[in-house]
Amino acid sequence: MTTINLSDAKNRLSKLVKEAAETTCQVVISVNGRNQAVLISMEEYESLMETINILRDQTLVKKIKTSMEEIQKGNVVDFDSIRKD
Fold it and tell me: Sign of the C-alpha dihedral, residues 11, 14, 17, 20?
């Protein structure tokens, strides 16, 4: 993660956007020495939003937790078994 002040970010915005889009690098933008914003790729933003939406759905979170517990117990069916049915 890189931290850059606002005036430098303005001067390098095209380069920063390109770097963010092509990597998972995050750029923290500070104003008067305080971190104020983060520049990330659209792909990373969409992934974060999807995670947030999943975590907001408590029913889904419970299903995921139950499923993970079943996997740890070995209560799984392999794909080939399903395909045969």
Answer: negative
Cβ 3 vs Cβ 35: under 8 Å: yes
Find residue 44's DSSP bridge partners: none
Judge contact between 20 and 27, C-beta under 8 A: yes
The per-residue pLDDT for 81 is 80
Chain centroid offset of residue 42 CA:
10
Contact assessment for residue 74 and residue 66, using Cβ atoms and an 8 Å cutoff: no
**Contacts with 28 (C-beta within 8 Å, 6 or more apart), sequence order:** 1, 2, 3, 4, 35, 37, 38
Contact of 26 with 39, CB cutoff 8 Å: yes
Ranges assigned E (strand) in 1-85 = 2-5, 27-31, 34-39
| Predicted TM-score of the model (pTM) | 0.70
pLDDT score of 85 more than 70: no
